[in-house]
Amino acid sequence: MGSSRARRGAGPVGLVLGGCVSVQFGAAVAVTLMPRAGALGVVTIRLVAAAVVLLLVCRPKVRGYTRADWGTVLVFGATMAAMNGLFYQAVARIPLGPAVTLEVLGPLALSVLASRRAVNALWAGLALGGVFLLGGAGGFGGLDPVGAAFAVGAGVMWATYIVFSSRTGRRFPQADGLALAMAVGAVLSLPFGFAESGSKLLVPTTLALGAAVAVLSSVLPYTLELLALRRMPAPTFAVLMSLEPAIAGTAGFLILHQALSWTDALAIALVVAASMGAVRTQVGSAARGE
Questions:
Q1: pTM for this structure?
Q2: Nearest-angstrom CA–CA distance, 169 and 190
Q3: Which residues lie below 8 Å from residue 3, measured CB to CB, with a gap of 6+?
Q4: What's the number of CA atoms in the CB half-sphere (13 Å) around residue 225?
Q5: pLDDT, tens digit, for every residue of 209-265?
Q6: How far apart are the C-alpha atoms of 167 and 137, rounded to whole Å?
Q7: How many CB atoms lie within 10 A of CB 96?
Q8: Which residues contact 270 (CB under 8 A, 6 or more apart)?
Q9: Residue 215 DSSP one-character state
Q10: pLDDT by residue (tens digit) across 112-147?
Q11: Taking the CB of residue 78, how many other CB atoms lie within 10 A of it?
Q12: Which among 290, 226, 244, 221 is positioned nearest to 108, based on CA atoms?
């Protein structure tokens, strides 16, 4: 019985980690697409393509929901649009690894503030040490300040996304809420994307690459995270997000040819250790029936 509960506890962890890998490799592909369509253009293609896929697959109902339900979806969609827009503006100016390192401060802050268990604050602190070490290796002082500010703003939106993703998952069946929120985000992003890129967004090759980014960075990870947040406390989810700099560094190396120094590797080891601690805490709690 205990091992069965432990496996159920590990299930959401696997969903989160799968989403992390998908979104960071999708981000690396998006960086290669930016010279074709611009940062906001890539965001627009990504959100529109993801919305179309999710609406076709989920076919969400639009009746029977309360005003509070719709308010949650609207805020969730606006948060997704803002988070993606700010992050892509960041990676257009600074390398992927440092951008994600700054962005992950948002979920880490949420973990420390929202956690009711002291051990989660410990894992968050360890991960935060790795984040700053990774930032020190890249030299945050030498980064474009505008790009760094965009990354920090994206982190704030990421923390907000975690909260409203959890609320949406509780209010809507399956991934219906996600599909509706993605549609909201797509509509909000359209004016900005066309203002920046115009007809470049309609080039077939650009659309195809944008659709691939949408699947990797939106459809797959958001669906996995939504499912995970139904069975995982938000603080634990936020600590697991500390893996993002490590995965981003790997994606940057493999796709964008951004090399990692030994200091980067040490920082990644700290972040991985924190994430492993969070996993053990989550699985241990499930095994005890907490």
A1: 0.79
A2: 25
A3: 287
A4: 29
A5: 888 888 898 888 878 877 887 777 766 776 777 777 788 888 888 888 777 677 767
A6: 37
A7: 24
A8: 126, 127, 129, 130, 133
A9: I
A10: 666 666 777 787 778 778 777 766 655 565 678 888
A11: 17
A12: 244
